[in-house]
Amino acid sequence: MQRLDTKLTLDMFWRQGLALLLGIIIWCVADPALAVDWTHPLSFSNAELSRRDFSGESLQAAEFSNANMELANFTNADLRGAVMSASVMTKANLHGADLTNAMVDQVNLTKADFERCSFQRSSFAPRHI
């Protein structure tokens, strides 16, 4: 009887050991590239960006909250999914910018240039145009 108990204990020990080893192998071999592909979106909240040149830059999902972007240049910039809220964009150049899926809310856009600008599926509620 004692021999049977010893055999069951050893069998259980080996199973637990193999399960632990398998868990470690899976944890070490799992593809970590899934987490590497995502980066935090750029944040320009409360920033002084007047006369800043963003022309041609990729600013997807960037956040511009309470920022001063007077006379900023966004010519041909990729602003898809960007959030622009409670900001000043007086005389900003958005010529050819892609604002698809962007949110523009309570932004002063007085005399801003929107020529050839894309606003597909965007939420657009400016303070002044």
TrEMBL record:
The keyword Repeat applies. Keywords: Repeat. InterPro entries: 5peptide_repeat. It comes from the Bacteria. This is Pentapeptide repeat-containing protein. It comes from Nostoc cf. commune SO-36.
